[in-house]
Amino acid sequence: MKFNVSSTELLKGLMDISKAIPAKSALPILENFLFVLEGNLLEVTASDSELTLRTVIEVDKTEEEGRIAVPARHIIDLLKELPDQPLTIKTVSDSSIECDWATGNSILPFFPAEDYPEIKGAGDDAEKITFPAQSLADGISGTIYATADDEIRPAMNGIFFDFDVQSTTLVASDSHKLICYTTNDVKAEGKCSFILHKKPAAVLRSILDKDDEEVKVTFDSSTVVFAFGKTTMICRLIVGKYPKYRDVIPQNNSSILKIDRQLLLNTVKRVAVCANKASNHIKLDLNPGHLEISAQDLGFAIAAYEKINCDYSGDELSIGFKSTFLIEILSNMTCETLVMKFADARRAAFIVPSEEEADTEKVCGILMPIMVS
């Protein structure tokens, strides 16, 4: 193997996929990048067996093609210290490569590409869907915080992608809160779905390039492939059945609070300072025309109370929530005015954008109450 490449371009490509390199693996070969050089294209793969990232880097003056596995930490550490300049990489023995730059060189080991495990994508029966990159990034950002850490129900540890002929909904829930992100930009030929674990979902969100217009999604019952720009991400799916989330969305909550989202968020943050640090409980007292928010920690003899004007129609209601959950939902919505719909103090509140912003705000959620004295 011998080729020339920009040190900066090579570093950028390796950094983009380095999130898939395990810190320590039972299979040591996975602590390496797999380099496959064909023509003027260098395909680089990183994998921890559950998540695989692959990118293609354009190179110059390919003199000898080849396949090798290069230690990830060593080559990244070297490239980080080099200024932007042409770099020549070539094999100099059966187990080492030489990196030459203007004023010096470095010898690094490599391992046989044959030792690198085969990475399989989705099968022949896979579903194929095109997802706008911005919608995919927004959907993951708007739901990932609501995923659970549940060993008993692993399906709750990921984001549920629910494709339909009219729209697509991304769903996440930890049983205390449920968040839905719906977009009409993505439509399938028929109903289909998969559950993406939150760890690869977070990686996907971080590497999605704003310049990429579309992401091609290919998936079967166990594997999903996301392809965009020069990057491909392959990961295993959570196998299991996601709960029927539509059945738990309240339909007849008749008490309605309409309020400025930022005002409510700031008020909850201020009052929550005096909430019990273990429970984070706050109480909302709703009356026509105003909302009172309060919290107290009897152990430290502290309390907070704030009264704000609002548009509320319904019976007088006192309801408690965990402040951290409410703050998360309010922070991840973008609408200026939101609507909270209540049934009573024991049933979930439904949080949606106001009617005027319903077309632009794609996120809605439900939040379970807690009993407060």
Report the C-alpha radius of gyration, rounded.
Answer: 26 Å
How many strands?
A: 27
Helix content: 10-25%
- Outline the low-pLDDT stretches: none
Can you tell me the overall shape? Answer: elongated
Main sheet: which strands, in order across?
Answer: 10-6-2-3-4-18-17-16-11
Please summarize the sheet with the most strands: 9 strands, antiparallel
How does the helix and strand content classify structurally? Answer: alpha+beta
Percent strand? 35-45%
- Average pLDDT score: 93
Q: With helices defined by DSSP (H or I, 4 residues minimum), what is the helix count?
A: 6
Cα-to-Cα separation, first versus last residue: 72 Å
Architecture overview:
The chain is an alpha+beta fold and 373 residues long. The chain is built from six helices and 27 strands. The strands form four sheets. Strands 10-6-2-3-4-18-17-16-11 form a nine-stranded antiparallel beta sheet. A nine-stranded antiparallel beta sheet has the order 15-12-13-14-27-26-25-19-23. It has a five-stranded antiparallel beta sheet with strand order 5-1-7-8-9. Strand 2 and strand 3 form a beta hairpin. Helix 1 (7-17) packs across helix 2 (72-81), helix 3 crosses helix 4 and helix 5 packs antiparallel against helix 6 (323-332). The chain is elongated.
